Each structure stands twice: as structure tokens, then as C-alpha cells.
Amino acid sequence: MPSSDAQLPLLPAVRPSGRSPVVLDERLRGTKFVSLTPKRVLNPPSATGMDYWSLNPYVGCEFGCSYCYARYTHRYVVERTHAAGKLTDADLAEYRGPQGWEAFERRIFVKEQVVGALEADLRRVPPGETIVIGTATDPYQPAERRFRLTRAVLRRLVRCEGLSVGIITKSPLVTRDIDLLRRLQERNELEVHVSLITADARLARTLEARSPIPAARLRALARLVDGGINAGLIMAPVLPGITDGREHMDALFAAARAAGARFVHAGALRLYAAVRDRFIPLLAEHFPDLVPRYERAYARQAGAPRDYARALSRRVQALQRKHGFTRNRGMIDRYRPGRVPTQGELELRGSLL
After folding, report:
1. What values do phi and psi take at 69, rounded to 5?
2. What is the CATH number for 310?
3. Cβ atoms 308, 268 nearer than 8 A
């Protein structure tokens, strides 16, 4: 009988893979802020499919908006970090969360040394290109009060000339950086988009668990404009059957005008697979009649049905004219027409008629 030493093991011994990340801070509600040291922080248009470079100082977001399309980016970063040996197998399970969407709100990656990575990345950006900050997660979410990564990014960008820079945020904290925004605007084009999908505070709390109230965002918009910053409002996403009614949108456009907004843009919901687990149960709880309509209309694509997007674009343009906003395309206003609608799309479009 051969000795055990000569036998080939059926399965290799189980060893922990990778190493646990450095936890920089932790909230009482259990949210952890985890160190991430990326080699690059600017995502090129070739990688995103958009017309601009994007930059997100954080991965994951405490605001916890139910409709946020960026939840899939968090899972991608978690799995890539694990593959690089920077997360253990146990961490991988934790950072995916018991529900796929939960870790996005409770495990926030903080891109330390962001300025060093940005310095190298800027060498790849041709003159005249557009960089948008906050395309996936809010650059002024509560973590920014401690880590100040977004302010560090702006301090580097003020040394640039001839760029177009966009910022998207729900947070009044953006007004902290008016001094840097003024300097950035001296030699570059700048658009600050204050994100707000409704002027109804109760509805906002239902859809956006921990975001600043609408009134606070509108006050921040007014402060930016009064400070000489080219700032406006972005209504994104527009939620079919919930926030796309004519009176609802008209009230928001009027509030933006009263705050002094230089522009208003809007875009329809994108319902990726990673978002459905969070958003559809919320629909079922608060808007049950909409669930089958959403499931039919978004059955074959994550983007809004093309016919719906056309109808929304017409409504936005009409409201822009009514409230005196120019119809020029902004840095992040990327509407592209499409195909013949399906019956499910036509049903969803009914909320715009």
C-alpha cells in the first residue's frame, strides 16, 4: 500500500487568498471606508462609451439612491480588487453584500493618492478634452468632508488650461469649493450640475434614502451661481410614471429658474441588472402598478426605451423654452435617437402623454 506521501491530493489545501484592505473609517451604521490605491483614475471615452473622460474619487456612495446605475461599477471594482490579491475570499463575500446592492452603500472605496494617479493620467488627455467628475458616485458624498479627495483633484486641475470640466453632485458641500471652482473657470470651461429629480421632499426621501433634501440642493445651486460659477440642474434619472409628469417637471424647472440655474438637463432611467435588485422591490412597495410596466419596457435593454427617450426629450425642450433655458447640449447631455418602439415601450411612454 503506497504511503500517503506518495499520493496526489484530490483537492489542494484551502489557503486564504489575498489580504484584507485597510479600513480608514467606520460609521455607527456599519458603513466602512476602505483604502484603494489605483494606478489610474481617469477613465477614457474608449472605456466608457461616452464622449468624455470620467473621474470618480470614491467607489460606492452613502446616499443610497435606489435607482443609481453605478451599483454595477462597485461590484466590478470588488471583483477586480479580489483578483489582484487585495481582498481575501472572506472579504469578497462581505463586499458583495448579502444583497448585491447593499455593499455599494456600505463599503465605500476611497482612492487614496488620487492626485498622483491623476498627474500621470493627465498626460494622456489631449487639449480641449472634457473631464466629468462624479459620473458614477457622488464626489461630494459625506466621506468627502473627511478625505477631501475631490478638493485635491480640483487643486490639481486649476493648473490646467483649455479643458472642459464637469461636476455632478447632489451635495451642498460643493459650495465649500467655490474658491477653486472660480480659479478653474478662469482658464477652462466649467459646468457644475446639481442633481435633483424632484422638488417633492417626501418623494425624494422615498427614492433617495440619505440624500440632501431638495431645498438644500436648490440653495446650493443659488450659492454657486451667486458666486459666479456656471451651474445648473440635472434631472437624472427621470423615472417613468413617477417624476416625468408635466406638472412635476414644470415645478422642478421653475425651482431651478428661481435658484438662478444657467441650464437644466434631463435623462431617463437606466435599469441595469445590478440596479433591479434594489429598485424593483422599492417600486413594488410604493408604486406596485408600475412594476409590470417597467419589467416589460426594460426587458431587453438597460437603457430607456428609445421612443420614451424621444418623448422625454421633447418635453424637456418645451420646458426649457418655457422657463428661458437655452437648448444647447451640455457636457453630459447625450441623447441619441433610436429604433421603432415595442408595445411595452409604448405603454411606458403613456406617462408622458
Report:
1. -70, -15
2. 3.80.30.30
3. yes
**Cβ neighbourhood burial of 30 (10 Å; 0-12, 13-18, 19+):** exposed
pLDDT at 7 over 80: no
Residue 229's pLDDT band (cuts 50, 70, 90): very high
Residue 317, in any domain of the structure = yes
Cis peptide before 237 (omega within 30 of 0): yes
Compute the mean pLDDT over every residue in the chain, rounded to the nearest whole number.
86
Give the residue carrying C-alpha cell 424621444.
310
Consecutive H or E run containing 211: none
Cell reading at 137 = 458616485
Half-sphere exposure of 232 (CA within 13 A, CB side): 24
**For 84, how many CA atoms within 13 A lie in the half-sphere containing its CB?**
13
> Residue 205 pLDDT > 50, yes or no?
yes
**55: containing domain:** 23-352
Q: Are 319 and 247 in contact (CB under 8 A)?
A: no
| Domain presence at residue 11 | no
343: pLDDT confidence band, cut at 50, 70 and 90?
very low
